[in-house]
Predict the 3D structure of the following.
Amino acid sequence: MDLGIRGKWAIVCASSKGLGRGCAEALAAEGVNLVINARSDAPLQDTAAAIRAAYGVEVHAIAGDITSEAGRAAVLAACPAPDILVNNAGGPPPGMWTDWARDDFIKALDANMLTPIALIQAVVPGMMERGWGRVVNITSQSVKAPLAVLGLSNSARAGLTGFVAGTSRQIAGKGVIMNNLLPGSHATDRIASLDQRVSQQQGISEAEARAARQAANPTGRDGTAAEFGAMCAFLCSVHVGYMVGQNVLLDGGGVNATM
Ligand code: NAP
């Protein structure tokens, strides 16, 4: 299937590795030029070079913290009028609800709710003027089925989900389509760090923690960044013009629900 987005420009936030990189690579495979971003410059430059070599698209690599105003300004300066925006950032740390103070919530809200909203506000008006745009927000399975230890994430992502539900319907008439993509357990450094925490808490090895988590999933495995990226690219394609404000769950059937 031709996704119809060759030659377009995408900002993919937090994308030197993991799910963001999976999205960047899948878009590049469709001929989309990229602005990629992460805080550490060296791995980001390596990712940019690898994507240029593999797909022959233009890639600008902008190092900076996307949750800071300066980081967002640098990314937007590199691509003020993108056709596609993929919102992503690191997830908040796990913990216990009794331990989180106001500042912990503010930090989580900044990273996983207010940062994507700021970027949407920065680029969507231009997309609406030009009559075409795609926004994909990477959120989490926890929006549908909360993970108690990730209460900071549950809270911030629920806020973004509410914003997207209303806003996506205000912009669709101008050709700008916005949806959320919800990862379950995908094989990235993030999930490895969560396995590490379980192994410490339960006195088991990291491999045992991972095996137990995977055994509980109907597929018996983790998702891959490539699978995740392929769905992201489809959500950025010409074919999703009638799909507005949806929460697309990629979790191997982990959330046990009929709908
Ligand atoms: P990951 O493998 O740890 O990769 C995170 C990427 O984002 C890296 O490139 C990292 O580079 C960059 N990054 C992190 N914080 C950043 C910031 N403030 N500004 C700019 N770049 C930043 O994580 P992942 O598994 O791909 O997860 C991506 C998102 O999906 C997270 O919000 C995570 O909570 C969520 N999620 C993941 C899963 C899963 O199974 N993997 C499940 C549910 C939700 P630098 O460190 O150099 O900045």
